[in-house]
């Protein structure tokens, strides 16, 4: 089967949906379309509309979005991964098991015909005896060419994944709910009114580092309430002077970073005493925060891959799967 000129990369996670038209050779993104219709939201609509065919419901959404970037009446191949293959996605696929590597032969793959012209290749997630992931395994495979030695590959996010890379393959991993916990605490807990997001400044960096140190020493739970307690104490002493404590922007900004530091410090704590290399791939603000935290914890031999590299990682991984599966494709 001859190589396609392009393919569609679909990244369909819990909260977001993204399709990208990709040049097969250069991996350049020709067109891109994103929505916030992650599988969770679409699954809710599927249930509330009382529809019977989940696969058809998800396929319809996929095609309706795809036509925003490409003519869907032509022959196309889509490679998709993420929560799309979960119990609340298009089709429930069994996880593959570790190890995984750039041979991609241990992943579970399924082919579906979306219409007469479009072939959909679904990549299942990966599990161990006590953990699961869907989507990050494809990013991790796409990042393998950047890993020179045995290491931990860190993929920070809502569910941060730490993958252990040994002897040319990923053999195990662990999920840390760092991002999700941050969101829950900052948006739904008693602490939410004492937190304010802002660009990091000298004061908030100090607070972040203090959080990292405490979090890394197992003081996460014992430190959280201090955010409220400190405010209450200040309000009381002002009250004694006949004054009232209003909104304290600087304090709230520092609290925001303190909370972030606590959670990151806790996630990264076990790496302090390891003699193995650490490679971290994240973008933007998240990348900066993890770099500061890893430095503070004196994690030896850590390197950081750029946001651009991470952006391309899933596409790389999907192309590798596609290359393995040319022969089974009816149309390209
Ligand atoms: O497979 C599942 O059910 C998950 O919840 C996996 C999840 O952690 C993703 O890997 C990232 O959100």
From TrEMBL:
Source domain of life: Bacteria
GO MF term (any one): 2-dehydro-3-deoxygalactonokinase activity
GO process terms (BP): D-galactonate catabolic process
Pfam families: DGOK
Protein name: 2-dehydro-3-deoxygalactonokinase
Organism: Flammeovirga yaeyamensis
């Amino acid at each position: 089967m001859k190589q396609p000129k392009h393919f569609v990369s679909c990244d369909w996670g819990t909260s977001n949906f993204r399709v990208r038209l990709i040049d097969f050779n250069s991996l350049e993104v020709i067109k891109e379309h994103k929505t916030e219709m992650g599988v969770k939201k679409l699954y809710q609509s599927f249930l509330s509309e009382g529809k019977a065919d989940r696969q058809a419901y998800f396929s319809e959404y996929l095609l309706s979005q795809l036509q925003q970037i490409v003519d869907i009446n032509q022959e196309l191949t889509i490679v998709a991964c993420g929560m799309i293959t979960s119990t609340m996605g298009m089709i429930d696929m069994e996880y593959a098991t570790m190890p995984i590597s750039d041979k991609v032969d241990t992943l579970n793959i399924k082919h579906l015909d979306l219409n007469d012209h479009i072939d959909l290749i679904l990549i299942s997630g990966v599990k161990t005896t006590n953990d699961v992931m869907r989507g990050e395994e494809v990013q991790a495979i796409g990042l393998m060419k950047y890993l020179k030695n045995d290491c931990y590959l860190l993929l920070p996010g809502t569910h941060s994944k730490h993958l252990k890379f040994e002897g040319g393959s990923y053999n195990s991993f662990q999920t840390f709910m760092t991002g999700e916990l941050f969101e829950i605490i900052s948006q739904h807990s008693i602490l939410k009114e004492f937190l304010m997001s802002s660009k990091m400044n000298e004061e908030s960096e100090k607070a972040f580092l203090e959080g990292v140190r405490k979090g890394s020493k197992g003081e996460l739970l014992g430190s959280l309430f201090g955010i409220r307690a400190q405010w209450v104490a200040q309000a009381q002493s002002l009250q004694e002077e006949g004054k009232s404590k209003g909104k304290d922007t600087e304090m709230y900004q520092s609290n925001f970073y303190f909370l972030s530091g606590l959670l990151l410090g806790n996630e990264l704590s076990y790496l302090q005493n390891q003699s193995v290399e650490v490679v971290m791939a994240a973008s933007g603000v998240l990348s900066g925060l993890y770099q500061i935290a890893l430095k503070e914890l004196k994690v030896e031999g850590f390197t950081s891959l750029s946001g651009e590299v991470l952006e391309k990682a899933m596409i790389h991984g999907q192309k590798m799967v596609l290359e393995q599966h040319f022969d089974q494709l009816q149309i390209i």
